[in-house]
């Protein structure tokens, strides 16, 4: 038998402050379990109104403070002969009304605490829970958590999209909430049956601080989760644990080495989930070169010359000059520099001009392109071959962690720009491999500031925020100061989560729609709580969320200290993970190979393989061609040329 709703008070209105269609007041006894953010139900005849408490006050019949002083005879510890009757008065904002029409003033009626069924009705989750529900947190007291879900169509698209998370660094647990939400999405996302084509969801997140996100594939400490956390996981229908499918990518130390610049560099981890390297080819570097240049470097003349290089020699093959009819197609940064040098020579022989480009402009761009090799040695693929997560389609329910923590700020911006641009272009072409891709970006106020900085990163993020949901690209942005983020990016986010926020930030105009009491609660919000705003919710709702059961960065660095791992050992460890029966064969082939491009190429191919793949495919043949797969009959496989008993390696 279901318990009757707990009656806590009654709606009232005064001549001075009557109820409206969207706000109402009610009184309650002092011992009623009501506070800021409590959901309540008003019943009056056939009408039911759901509201969220946004203000609280206490009243008695005292006319003057002097009367209270005299009642205690000036002694605070003296009890008066008769205690004054007092009540609590609450103001609530309407979440939903049933029936929806007419939209009139809230009627006078009984007020009860919302139970689990009321919460679902108040937040309209019953209309989408089965097909589109994504767990977003828990409402209610710690001993009675009620699951709250958001609609995936309004979080990931296509109806609406994007999430913005605001909170004080170190206190708001922004990263923890994003990780929890990603696990919820991976566990609950069912896709949209009305959409055709790719299915599934994947996520990209950038590790910018130490080892924060480098061990999310490992479980947290046994004492990390509290009973409250476990209770919330149970209420949400989720099983606590680390991310099951994670791909880690880190930059190379330099251009001709396999060593990675990362704190996740342990033989133990390499055996179960190796960290893969990323570096960028010529096209990616040049297309995002403006990130590394100042406005003085890339004026209209320099930009015009740079675009001519891209169009004529990177995108296709063209004659190098007007007098030199030899054609060229630049595949590496050295190829491009050689072309520029020849054109500079022709310009000097032609009164300092080449096809309308002045020799000084050409020389300046040559120097800037050349400097990229020196400033970002581990990021530039000298052979022109891009390495990274886009070498194969993205996988469903997979988290891609891009480590940039040990890079300079300038290098981080270059990496960020290239990945964002690549995600954007591939999603437009429909070649990412999944229907929805989430991009998690911290410190939005740095990349898209409210001052309106015009740069490559800002344009890409603004484009994702405005059009991404139609293409399947969703932005999860986070920052400490929401007021300092570009209004177009924030305004295009359909969902917003607010953690602990400092009073100075709350004083900004962007928070004016919150009541004073809600602002004060946000300024004192505990870690593990957020105020969530979602299109289906009539008002923002305070929620609690469980800690992600993943290893923290500090714990991971202590348990898996970074060491320098030889590339040969990396290869052997990866082969053991893929197919240990081929280990001896691989050892025979690579044991005596000199370190350099050949070994790096083997490691690059192996690191992209999964258990069950054939590691022999990563080895070069004696003639330099790809390896033959003996006895295979895969149709159309370029690695296959029929059975052979010869040693092709």
In a few lines, what is going on in this structure?
This protein is α/β, with parallel strands linked by helices and about 650 residues long.
- Alpha plus pi helix count: 21
Largest sheet, order of strands side by side?
Answer: 12-11-17-10-18-19-9-20-21-22
Count up the domains: 3
| CATH class call of the largest domain | Alpha Beta
Query: Beta fraction of the residues?
Result: 15-25%
Topology:
Elements: E1 7-12, E2 23-28, E3 39-44, E4 47-60, H1 65-71, E5 86-98, E6 110-113, H2 116-122, H3 129-132, E7 133-139, E8 146-151, H4 152-155, E9 163-166, H5 174-188, E10 201-207, H6 227-236, E11 246-251, H7 267-272, E12 276-278, H8 282-287, H9 300-314, E13 318-319, E14 327-328, H10 333-348, E15 353-354, E16 357-358, H11 359-375, E17 398-403, H12 409-429, E18 436-441, H13 444-447, H14 456-471, E19 473-479, H15 487-491, E20 495-498, H16 503-506, H17 516-523, E21 529-533, E22 541-544, H18 553-559, H19 567-579, H20 583-590, H21 597-607
Parallel strand pairs: 9-19, 9-20, 10-17, 10-18, 11-12, 11-17, 18-19
Antiparallel strand pairs: 1-2, 1-6, 2-5, 3-4, 3-6, 4-5, 7-8, 13-14, 15-16, 20-21, 21-22
Helix pairs in contact: 9-11, 10-11, 12-14, 19-20, 19-21
Describe the structure.
- The protein has 649 residues and is an alpha/beta fold.
- Helices cover 31% and strands 19% of the residues.
- The protein has 21 helices and 22 strands.
- A ten-stranded mixed β-sheet has the order 12-11-17-10-18-19-9-20-21-22, sandwiched between helices. Strands 1-2-5-4-3-6 form a six-stranded antiparallel β-barrel.
- Strand 15 and strand 16 (357-358) form a beta hairpin.
- Helix 10 (333-348) runs antiparallel to helix 11, helix 19 runs antiparallel to helix 20 (583-590) and helix 19 packs parallel to helix 21.
């Amino acid at each position: 038998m279901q318990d009757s709703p707990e009656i806590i008070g009654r709606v009232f209105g005064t001549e001075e402050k009557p109820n409206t269609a969207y706000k109402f007041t009610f009184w309650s006894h002092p011992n009623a379990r009501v506070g800021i953010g409590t959901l309540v139900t008003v019943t009056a005849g056939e009408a039911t109104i759901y509201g969220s408490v946004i203000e609280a006050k206490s009243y008695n019949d005292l006319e003057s403070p002097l009367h209270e002083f005299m009642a205690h005879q000036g002694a605070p510890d003296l009890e008066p002969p008769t205690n004054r009757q007092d009540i609590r008065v609450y103001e609530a904002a309407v979440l939903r009304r049933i029936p929806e029409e007419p939209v009139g003033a809230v009627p006078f009626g009984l007020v009860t605490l919302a139970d689990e069924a009321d919460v679902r009705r108040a937040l309209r989750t019953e209309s989408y829970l089965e097909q589109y529900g994504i767990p977003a947190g828990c409402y209610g007291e710690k001993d009675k958590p009620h699951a709250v879900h958001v609609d995936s169509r309004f979080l990931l698209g296509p109806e609406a999209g994007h999430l913005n998370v605001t909170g004080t660094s170190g206190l708001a647990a922004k990263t923890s909430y994003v990780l929890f939400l990603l696990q919820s999405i991976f566990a609950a996302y069912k896709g949209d049956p009305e959409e055709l084509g790719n299915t599934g969801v994947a996520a990209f997140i950038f590790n910018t601080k130490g080892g924060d996100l480098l061990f999310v594939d490992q479980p947290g400490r046994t004492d990390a989760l509290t009973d409250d956390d476990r209770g919330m996981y149970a209420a949400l229908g989720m099983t606590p644990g680390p991310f099951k499918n994670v791909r880690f990518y880190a930059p190379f130390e330099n251009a001709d080495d396999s060593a990675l610049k990362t704190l996740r560099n342990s033989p133990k981890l390499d055996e179960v989930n190796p960290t893969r390297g990323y570096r960028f080819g010529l096209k990616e570097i040049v297309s995002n070169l403006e990130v590394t240049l100042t406005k003085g470097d890339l004026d209209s003349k320099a930009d015009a010359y740079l675009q001519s290089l891209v169009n004529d020699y990177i995108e296709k093959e063209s004659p190098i000059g007007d007098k030199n009819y030899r054609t060229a197609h630049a595949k590496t940064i050295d190829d491009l520099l050689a072309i520029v040098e020849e054109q500079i020579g022709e310009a000097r022989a032609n009164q300092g001009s080449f096809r309308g480009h002045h020799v000084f402009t050409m020389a300046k761009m040559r120097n800037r392109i050349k400097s990229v090799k020196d400033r970002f040695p581990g990021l530039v693929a000298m052979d022109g071959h891009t390495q990274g997560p886009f070498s194969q389609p993205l996988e469903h329910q997979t988290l891609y962690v891009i480590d940039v923590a040990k890079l300079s700020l300038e290098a981080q911006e270059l990496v960020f720009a290239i990945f964002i641009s690549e995600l954007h272009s591939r999603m437009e072409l429909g070649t990412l491999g999944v229907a929805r891709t989430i991009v998690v970006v911290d410190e939005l106020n740095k990349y898209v500031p409210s001052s309106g900085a015009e740069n490559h990163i800002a344009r890409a993020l603004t484009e994702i925020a405005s059009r991404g949901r139609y293409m399947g690209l969703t932005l999860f942005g986070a920052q400490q100061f929401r007021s300092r983020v570009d209004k177009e990016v924030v305004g295009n986010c359909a969902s917003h989560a607010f953690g602990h926020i400092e009073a100075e930030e709350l004083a900004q105009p962007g928070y004016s729609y919150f009541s004073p009491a809600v602002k004060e609660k946000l300024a004192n919000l505990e870690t593990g709580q957020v105020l969530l705003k979602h299109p289906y919710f009539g008002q923002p709702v305070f929620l609690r969320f469980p800690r992600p059961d993943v290893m923290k960065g500090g714990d991971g660095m202590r348990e898996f200290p970074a060491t320098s791992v030889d590339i040969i050992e990396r290869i052997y460890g990866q082969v053991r993970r893929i197919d240990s029966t081929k280990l001896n064969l691989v050892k025979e082939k690579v044991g005596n190979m000199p370190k350099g491009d050949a070994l790096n190429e083997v490691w690059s191919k192996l690191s992209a393989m999964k258990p069950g793949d054939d590691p022999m495919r990563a080895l070069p043949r004696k003639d330099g061609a790809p390896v033959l797969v003996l006895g295979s009959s895969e149709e159309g496989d370029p690695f296959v040329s029929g059975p052979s008993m010869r040693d092709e390696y």
